Amino acid sequence: MIKLGVAPIAWTNDDMPELGSENTFEQCISEMALAGYTGTEIGNKYPKDPETLKAYLEPRGLEVASAWFSAYLTVEPFERTAERFIEHRDFLHAMGAKVIVVSEQGHSIQGQEDTPVFEDKPYFTDDEWNLLTEGLEKLGELAHEKDMEIVYHHHMGTGVQTTEEIDRLMENTDPAKVSLLFDTGHLVYSGEDPIEIYERYSDRIKHIHFKDIRKEKMEEVKANKDSFLTGVRKGAFTVPGDGMIDFKPIWEKINQAGYEGWIVVEAEQDPAVANPFLYAQKAREYIKDVTGL
């Protein structure tokens, strides 16, 4: 009941399109399949028409696991976010996806080249928290119209990054309407305990990102007060089996909880430095060794 996918951000970075600009969409999905994955998330080079995209993915044995949606619930009227969300939802539904990745980008610094990711992380006011939690529940209701779920992506450089912030989000949203995306890399990068988070919210986790961290690069980002994007360029992120995270105890918790859904390998780094196909293979072999999948 667990499927393995890989994110296209290793081939072309949507936040920094110059990273991997030379890699084509067809190369990306062909190498995903060749490396042994059966799913993908969506990148900016992917066709936006469902039937066109299916014609590329199906011969390669690939499904769409999900795709990122940027919400701005804390800084714009709900109706504006909802309009974009419905279009995004309908596209994913046409592709057969069951979950929609949502991350609040109000006040986010993750896309700012020169803003220190640790020192200048945003914090929401009580009013903004209310806008966020109430808005997410409404998005969850919209997802239910298509028998889908939203999974919230805690993320470096945003207002929902730390354990305390994840706790507040979970405590103030209806479990029937708002689920959680579990991202190993973002938790470790932020200094959180991924096993603690998984144990606490295993019944609400409906999508997983497996991402690793190069410890020396992370420490360099902290010491130099680098931005999130600078950290990506320096190689702070990598694939499972190539960094500091031991995925064996994490997998034990996932397996014990009876998780069903996608595990997606995601590691944004410069493809000119880290060949995306070879790293996808490395991750696939490591995951097989650890999980048997």
TrEMBL record:
Its EC number is 4.2.1.44. Its cofactor is Co(2+); Mn(2+); glutathione. Keywords: Cobalt, Lyase, Manganese. GO terms for biological process: inositol catabolic process. It catalyses: scyllo-inosose = 3D-3,5/4-trihydroxycyclohexane-1,2-dione + H2O. The keyword Transmembrane helix does not apply. Pathway: Polyol metabolism; myo-inositol degradation into acetyl-CoA; acetyl-CoA from myo-inositol: step 2/7. Residues 32-288 form the Xylose isomerase-like TIM barrel domain. GO terms for molecular function: manganese ion binding; myo-inosose-2 dehydratase activity. InterPro entries: IolE (IPR023952), IolE/MocC (IPR030823), IolE/XylAMocC-like (IPR050312), Xyl_isomerase-like_sf (IPR036237), Xyl_isomerase-like_TIM-brl (IPR013022). The keyword Metal-binding does not apply. It comes from the Bacteria. Belongs to the IolE/MocC family. NCBIfam families: myo_inos_iolE (TIGR04379). This is Inosose dehydratase. It comes from Suicoccus acidiformans. The lineage of its organism: Bacteria, Bacillati, Bacillota, Bacilli, Lactobacillales.
